[in-house]
Design goal:
The complex is a heterodimer. By secondary structure, chain A is an alpha+beta fold. In chain A, 23% of the residues lie in helices and 35% in strands. Chain A is built from four helices and six strands; from the N terminus they run βααββββααβ. In chain A, the strands form two sheets. Chain A has a four-stranded antiparallel β-sheet. In chain A, a hairpin with a 2-residue loop joins β3 and β4. Chain A starts with a strand and ends in an 11-residue tail after the last strand. Chain B is mostly helical. Helices cover 66% and strands 1% of the residues of chain B. Chain B contains 21 helices and two strands. Chain B has a two-stranded antiparallel ribbon. In chain B, 44% of the residues are buried. Chains A and B meet through α3 of A and α2 and α8 of B.
C-alpha cells in the first residue's frame, strides 16, 4: 500500500537523543530509500512562506499563509510503499520527527479490484 | 420434526463453540468483515430450519462451519469482481488449519480478529464497539445502549471502523513479538473498559461478557501474565457484585457483607495469580491488590502494609495521580490518618477537582477527629461526584459525621477506604485505563 506521510511540527517535542544516527533525518532517508519503502519526499519551507489559492465565482483568490491557522505546520512529506499500516507505523516511528514533532499517515486513494466493498 | 427447544439449544451451543472461529477465519480468507458476519448469521438461520425438519446433525458445529463457508462462496460467486477471494477461500479447505509453522495460539484466527479489532489506529470507542460486535456477537442495538447512542449511529460507526481497517491497510494478524506488548495493552484496555462499563453501571451482562473475552484471551495466550492478571482482577472485582450494591446504594469495601462475596470466583482468581513471574504488569499488580482484600476476613485485619507496597509497585509501572491517591488512602490505613493526610496533600496538585481526593481527605480528617473540616471536604466531594449513586454514598458518610460525632469516627478501627472499590479508574475515552 502507498501512504503519504505528512511530517508536522509539534508544540511539545521530546528532546534530541544526542545520537546522530537517531536524530538525523538524512540517516532515516538513506535507510528507507535503500529498502524501497521510501519512494520520495522532501522538506517544505515554513508556513510563513505559504500561499493559499482559491477560485471563487470565476476569480482567483490568493492569500498569504496556510489555509489553517495552527501552531503546528507541515514541515515535509514522504511517500511510503509498505505492505500494510503496521509496516508504515514501524518506519514512521523511526523518523526523528516522530519524536520532535508528529507524523500523519494517509493511505493513497487506490481503487483495488479485489478490495473490500463493505 | 425435532423438538424446537432441542434445536435451539443445539444451535446455541454450536454457535458458542464455533461462531467466533468461523467468523475469524472467513475474515482472513475473504478480507470482508460484513460477508463473514452475514454468512454465519445466514448459516444459523438455515440450521434452525433444517435441524427442525431433518434432525440435529451429529456434529452441529461442523455443520455450521460448512454451511457458513458455502454461504460465503455463494455470496462471492454473485460478485463478478471477487474471483480472487473465491480462489483463496477455495484453497482453504480446512478453515481451522493454522498456517504452517505458526506457533500455537498466534496462528489462531480468533486471536488475529481480537488484535485487529483492538488496533490502536482505531479510536478507543471503535475498538470497544467492534470487539463487542464481531468477537462477542452483541447486536448493534445492544452496543448502542452501552454507548448511549442510537442504533443507527452505532451502525454507522461500526461501518466506518470496518472501512478504516480496509482503507488504512490495518493488517489482519497478531503483531510480531517486538510490537506485541504494546498491542496487547490495547486489547487488555478494551476488555477492561467493557468490564468497568458494565460493572460501573450494574450492567452485569456486560461485565460477564468482559470476563468471557478475558478467558478467551487467556486461553489463546497462556504465556501472558498480564492476560491472566486481567482475568484475575475482573474475577475478584466481580466476586463482590452482590455485596457492592444493596438496594441501589453503593457499599464501601469495608462495609460489605463478605459472606456475599463469590468464593468460586475468588478461588479461580487466586489460582491464576499463583504462577506469575517476577516482572509484574499493572493488571497483575491490581489483581494482587484485589486479592489482599479478597482474602481478608474484614477491613481491620486487611494487610495494609502489603497494600501500600503493591501501590508503590503500581506507581512505578503506571504512574498516575489516581493510583497515588489510592496509595495515600492505604497509608492512612497502615500508618494512621495523619500520615494518610500528608500523603494525600503531597499529590492533590495533580487532582484539583477529583471527588475521590476530597472524599479521602474528609474520611482521613474524620478519623483524626477533625469533624468540621471533614464535613467541608465531604461536601465538596458530593458537589464533584459524577454519579447519583456516589453522591448518595458520600452524603451518607457526611450525615454519619453529624450523627455519630467525632469519637466513634476517630477510632482507627472504625473507618476504612473512602473509595467505593479498589477500582483505579474508569475513564471511557482514554486509551490507557490507568492514566
Amino acid at each position: 500500500m502507498k501512504y503519504m506521510m505528512f511530517v508536522c511540527t509539534d508544540t511539545e517535542p521530546d528532546p534530541p537523543t544526542g545520537d546522530p544516527k537517531l536524530d538525523d533525518v538524512d540517516d532515516w532517508v538513506e535507510r528507507h530509500a535503500a529498502s524501497g519503502a521510501r519512494v520520495m519526499g522532501d522538506a517544505l519551507r515554513p508556513a510563513a512562506d505559504a500561499t493559499t489559492v482559491r477560485m471563487r465565482g470565476g476569480k482567483v483568490l490568493v492569500t498569504d499563509g496556510p489555509f489553517a491557522e495552527s501552531r503546528e505546520w507541515i514541515a515535509g512529506f514522504d511517500i511510503l510503499e509498505c505492505a500494510d499500516l503496521d509496516a508504515a507505523i514501524e518506519i514512521a516511528s523511526q523518523h526523528p520527527m516522530a519524536r520532535f514533532g508528529r507524523l500523519e499517515l494517509r493511505p493513497f486513494w487506490e481503487d483495488e479490484p479485489g478490495g473490500p466493498t463493505s | 420434526m425435532t423438538d424446537g427447544g432441542d434445536v435451539h439449544r443445539a444451535l446455541t451451543d454450536a454457535l458458542a463453540a464455533e461462531r467466533l472461529r468461523i467468523v475469524a477465519t472467513l475474515i482472513r480468507t475473504t478480507g470482508d468483515w460484513q460477508l463473514a458476519e452475514d454468512a454465519v448469521a445466514d448459516a444459523a438461520e438455515r440450521a434452525l430450519q433444517r435441524w427442525t425438519d431433518d434432525g440435529i446433525p451429529d456434529r452441529p458445529a461442523a455443520w455450521l462451519t460448512t454451511a457458513a463457508r458455502r454461504r460465503a462462496i455463494d455470496i462471492l460467486r454473485r460478485r463478478d469482481n471477487e474471483r480472487s477471494k473465491l480462489a483463496e477461500l477455495a484453497m482453504h479447505d480446512d478453515p481451522d488449519d493454522p498456517p504452517a509453522g505458526a506457533p500455537p495460539g498466534i496462528g489462531d484466527d480468533r486471536l488475529r480478529l481480537v488484535f485487529t479489532c483492538c488496533h490502536p489506529a482505531l479510536s478507543m470507542e471503535a475498538r470497544v464497539a467492534l470487539t463487542l460486535k464481531v468477537v462477542s456477537n452483541l447486536s448493534t442495538a445492544a452496543i448502542a445502549r452501552v454507548f448511549l447512542t442510537s442504533e443507527n449511529t452505532m451502525g454507522q460507526r461500526l461501518l466506518r471502523a470496518k472501512q478504516k481497517i480496509a482503507n488504512a491497510g490495518i493488517p489482519y494478524r497478531v503483531p510480531p513479538p517486538d510490537a506485541l506488548p504494546e498491542r496487547l495493552d490495547s486489547v487488555l484496555a478494551v476488555i477492561y473498559l467493557v468490564f468497568t462499563d458494565g460493572y460501573g453501571t450494574a450492567n452485569d451482562d456486560l461485565a460477564v461478557e468482559a470476563i468471557r473475552l478475558s478467558r478467551l484471551l487467556r486461553d489463546l495466550m497462556p504465556n501472558s501474565d498480564e492476560a491472566g492478571g486481567l482475568l484475575a482482577l475482573m474475577l475478584l472485582q466481580h466476586s463482590r457484585r452482590s455485596a457492592r450494591v444493596v438496594d441501589g446504594d453503593l457499599v464501601t469495601l469495608e462495609d460489605q457483607d463478605r459472606s456475599r462475596w463469590d468464593t468460586d470466583a475468588i478461588s479461580e482468581a487466586l489460582a491464576l495469580l499463583g504462577g506469575a513471574g517476577p516482572e509484574r504488569g499493572p493488571y497483575l499488580i491490581q489483581a494482587e491488590l484485589a486479592a489482599v482484600h479478597a482474602t481478608a476476613l474484614d477491613a481491620e485485619s486487611t494487610d495494609w502494609l502489603r497494600i501500600v507496597a503493591l501501590y508503590d509497585e503500581l506507581v512505578t509501572v503506571h504512574p498516575s495521580p489516581v493510583v497515588a491517591l489510592n496509595r495515600a488512602i492505604a497509608v492512612g490505613m497502615s500508618d494512621g490518618p495523619l500520615a494518610g493526610l500528608r500523603a494525600v496533600d503531597a499529590i492533590t496538585d495533580d487532582l484539583p477537582d477529583f471527588h475521590l481526593a476530597f472524599a479521602a481527605r474528609g474520611e482521613l480528617l474524620a478519623r483524626a477527629g477533625r469533624v468540621a473540616e471533614a464535613h467541608i471536604k465531604l461536601s465538596r466531594a458530593i458537589e464533584l461526584a459524577p454519579s447519583e449513586q456516589e453522591r448518595r454514598q458520600l452524603a451518607r458518610r457526611r450525615d454519619a459525621l453529624d450523627e455519630v460525632g467525632p469519637r466513634l469516627l476517630a477510632d482507627p478501627h472504625r473507618s476504612g477506604q473512602c473509595c467505593p472499590d479498589v477500582r483505579v479508574s474508569r475513564r471511557r475515552s482514554d486509551d490507557d485505563p490507568f492514566r
